[in-house]
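yo

u said u wanted the structure for the complex thing, so here. seqs first:
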Amino acid sequence: MTILNFKRQIFAVLSVALLGLNTHALTAEELPQPVGEPLLTVSGAITNTNADGVAIFDLNMLASLRPTEFSTSTIWTDEPHTFTGIELHEVLDLIGVEGTILRATALNDYAVDIPISDAVEGGPIIAYLFDGKTMSTREKGPLWIVYPYDLDERYQTEQIYSRSIWQLDRLEILE
Amino acid sequence: MIGVETSKKPIARRFKIAVLSLVIATAFAALVFLGIQVRTELNNLRIASSDNTQWNLSQLEVEVLVFQHAIRDILSDDDPEASLATVRKRFDLLYSRHATLSQNRIFHGLSPDDEASLALMEIDQFLQDTVKIIDGPDTELHNSLAAIFQKSLSMRTLARRIALDGITLNAVNSEFQRNVISTLLLRTSLLASALILFLSIALVMLFNQFGVSERERTRYQKSNARLQSILESSLDAIVVADGEGNITDYNDAAAKIFGYTRTEAMGMHFSDIVYFTQRPEIEDTKLQKLVRDGLPRYVEKGLVELDAIRKTGDKIPIEVSIAATNAENGISYVSFLRDISERTRAQNELRNARDVALAADQEKSNFLAIMSHEMRTPLIGVMGTLDLMETTQLSSNQARYVDIAKKSGSLLLRHINDVLDIAKAEAGKLELNNDIFVPAELIDEIVSTNQTLANARGNTLIAQDQIGDSTQIVGDKFRLQQVILNLVGNAIKFTTQGKIHIESYRQISETGDWVVFQVQDDGIGISEANQTNIFDDFVTVDRSYRRSSEGTGLGLSICRLMIEAMDGEIELESQLGEGSTFRAKIPYREPTDQEKRAAETILEKKDSPTGLPTQSSLNILVVEDNQINRSVLRETLEVKGHSVTEATNGEEAVYLATSVSYDAILMDVSMPVMDGITATRMIRRSDGPSRATDIIGLTAHAMPAEQKSFRAAGMDLCLTKPVSAHDLEQVLSRKHHDPDKAIQTFSSSNLIDRSLLVDLMTLLSAEKFHETYAKFSSEVETCLRKIDIPKSPEEFQNAAAAFHKLSGSCGVFGARALHECASKIETACRNKSREIFVSHTQELPSIWAETREEIDSEVSAFFA
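structre next:
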């Protein structure tokens, strides 16, 4: 990892820490209640919830999880950018997924089914920082499922691109 | 092992291989390049360059509509849940969508004037205008909603425009992409097919080539094996040397010739066994250099004879043939050597035998020629005396004896002349006259003179001419006459009670234009076996044939030699028992105008009134130094009723001719004091009464070359000695006589008889002559050294014998003065006259010195 990336990582961690006042690590046993504006609602076949059968995350909750950061080019941007977020499999582990399909839905109700098998270590992340900054709706925020496209050609297909959903606000685990 | 030269790969073949490799490499490179391109394109296909563009495009319009809907919900108040937050959220989504779409690659290539670009820009403008209100306070936003809605209406149309254009662009892009790929694939497959085809052909060719080279290899092996066996079984020695001359191979035959084993020979140098020079003693390094230079010098020169040195040190002659081959490791020389000692020995023996035989033959020829020549002179005397004897009162017996003697004498003379002719013809010294004559007259003459002889055997001679009485031709009439006479004589001899046709005709054939003299008889004929050699010299003539003839057997060979000397041919057609036909052919030539004029001049002169008178009694001057000849001539002429005055030399003749008028002068050419030529010239130049008298030259033998000088001196005619009474009468009675009849040369001095000397030089080869001359010189000089006044009768006798021998030798060389002097000394010895002996022997050295000088100048002039 380059010095620059390292700096960015530190910066990202600091920003998250500033945003969250009651920062603490989330565990499988205990899923805290969201304090800030809810960013993501996970429903369906999950075991770990913090509301009525759903798991709701705000930015602080997400930022308290172990962040992953990578830089990659995308087909939607002209140059490579740095994305910071939580690996999808970590989120799914946290909420105790029992299904095989993950249906992700965006603010504009765009929805796409992602096989749970995609959620591997070093795989897609739910990004909440774009070049170290949070993303507004206008900038495809607040959340964006990003695959490390440059890492593997398998991540450069139309199918993967269609799974790279931005303006994400809901996840549903299907059996 | 003597290797066969490996053939160099032809340049053309190398070039072909290079081109082939280049083609294949290029094709491969192209294929690899195309493959990479295909792979890239396929990769591009596999790796999506964009997400679902169609969705994005259509979604813009949707977002506009949803945004409008959110506004309308508030404005209409229908939906209580409608809120400004929703409007803001929808706006943000629209904003985001527009931003995403603006970055989409399908619009990248568009110009700013394009409808889609303009639409994107217009929407952007709307968003930028609206975003301030959206981000502003709620009341302000609420108040602006109606206006925003109004503005957003046109956005929908723009969004649709963008969607449609985008789809079209996308389609075009896809189409282009597909075309690129299909073209690429097509190219690749074509190239691959071509390459496969090419490689297949190459493979076939390779297989072919493999077969060919396999066969070549087999053949090469076979020929190598064959070569090896040839080398080993070769009877000739084979020695191979490298460029430096070091022996690199050596076969069994070589071992036999040289005596060195193969192992021994391998370390040796070529110069150790073969001499390239006659000087083997020169130092080693030079010799080696010589061998290096020598080997190439003898290459491809065929068989060369050199000397070889055996192990034993013996030198043997060998025959060598050397070839050079350019092998991989430089030049090597392959020499084939053969021991030719046996052959050389045999050759030397043969050569010696041949030389001895040739020398013997030459001696014999010389002897024959000289003897014939020497025999002729005394025979002249005999014949002349017989002529004279006939004119005296003889008893019938005596007359018969004289007749027999005359016949035998003339036969003997003919034989001598034959031998002389053969000797001359064989030496290529036969000189031919260019006479003008009529063939018809020639054969008529022959028939009339031979009719009697023919009748004696019951034969009839018939002359038939087809050329014509008026046609003159040019040729040596005398010799031609000799030839025809010979043929007619033979025909008469071998025919009894038959007819002999003598014909002359012209024959134009492929071989030339000929005058043919044909003698045809119906006699005994000649067997085929004898026909082939009948024209050869007497040695090969059939004995039985020869025996039945009276001749020497030289007749036909003389005929052949003479006709051949005339550039003619002589042929025979005969069948045993049926008769023979002989044809003598000479080239047909009519006289030129100049030749005719020359002949006419002479005839006119003869016919002129100032010529010899026809009456029988003439006043004749006979100029002749030889007493016998002089008296023979005198007797002959007086018998015919002429009056004769004698002169013994030219000086006397001139004196007489300037004071007396003679009707004719018979002038010997070679005489002491003054020769006939000088005398003739002086008589012609004088104003004496005989200055216009006919002068008839007399000479032993005539050479056409000298006729000019005779004629230039003023002689009108010339007779060859011996002069018969008949000839004399003919000349004097002005019957036709060949004006060009041979005239013999003569010497202008008393010292030598040039004619004899020239005869001798003509008969002998230059080498032989010089040898004989040297012998003669030493004989004379020995004799001169030994001169001692004889004291006893025995000594006189010995001296007489010695001078007799010397005078004989002098006669052969025509050393007349010396001969006379020697004869006088001989006589003095016989008379035992010491004084005369002394006086003459004192003259001898000076005469010899002068004579030798004269002979030397004649010799150098003759052989020059």
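Chain B touches chain A at residues 43, 46-52, 59, 63, 66, 89, 92-93, 95-97, 99-100, 103, 105 (CB under 8 Å). Confidence is low (pLDDT under 50) at residues 1-8, 539-552, 603-615, 735-749 of chain B.
cya
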